[in-house]
Amino acid sequence: MSPPARERGRFAPSPSGPAHPGTLLAGLLAWLDARSRGAGFGLRLEDVDAERCSPALAREMREALVWLGLDWDAESVQSERRAAHEAALDALGEAGLLYPCRCSRADLRRRGAPAADGGHRYQGTCRGRALPAGGWRAVPEAIRLRLPEGRVAPADEGGTLLAQDPALEMGDPVLRRRDGAIAYHLAVVVDDAAEGVTRVVRGRDLAPCTAIHCVLQRALGLPTPSYRHHLLLLEERGAKLAKLHGAVGWQALRAHTSPEALCGWLAWVAGLEAEPRPRRPIDLLPGFDWGRVRRDDPIVRWTGRELVRIGP
Fold first, then answer.
1. Are strands 199-203 and 226-230 parallel, antiparallel or unpaired?
2. I need a surface site. Which of 39, 227, 249, 295 has the fewest CB within 10 A?
3. pTM surpassing 0.85?
4. In the chain, how many domains are there?
């Protein structure tokens, strides 16, 4: 009898801007999950959005993670896997699951109802269209996936509700944009399978995407990993702390604090430590337990010199 396959986790940031506290917390939690279980751990730079991502930002992302004290067993760059993404589109096209869409983002905002992820649900305006004889490659417009009707109920290890009817609550997703870029939904599913990822640990903001990912996994005959969605850091207005919403880049953090101090602060704000004290990621491994990670989303502020938690 062959031994069971080794578990494998990953951290998959988009190098579309500097790493910020939310990025580093997500990387730390994914690393702790994998290392505490003896699982493999990979870094994937999700750079298929050429308009926002660059090799310079990818290098900076690696530097930020190393500065914090994280390591990984393997690394991949998503834009280098274009052939695999296109092969998946070929398979979905042959199964009759793709169609061209001429609707613009303005159309979507004007016609679409709110979607589960906070965006706008696609109303299916172009759903009755078919691919031309040349397939999706002959289409200059966006390519969407025709979702099946019905509820999809993936499980989340932390209890986050993932069940939904994605066709009703999200609408058919774009898999290839009109500018030719492969969309997140397709790339992440194909790459997780290719890299043998068995555990996906990521922020709660991505939870509404999981049902769509499961639909794609089934359509492509790919395995479904286990999922765990964790807390987010919020800025004062209640939005996710992000590159465009109140975040401070890691280089500014580095100018005012040590990596040990930041790691200890992140562990404290996540509930892993009783107080903020200098810690390295490896110091957190012996007592790491998801039961200690807080479920609510703390509100934080950058004062210009330090990060402070202001609620809840």
1. parallel
2. 295
3. yes
4. 1
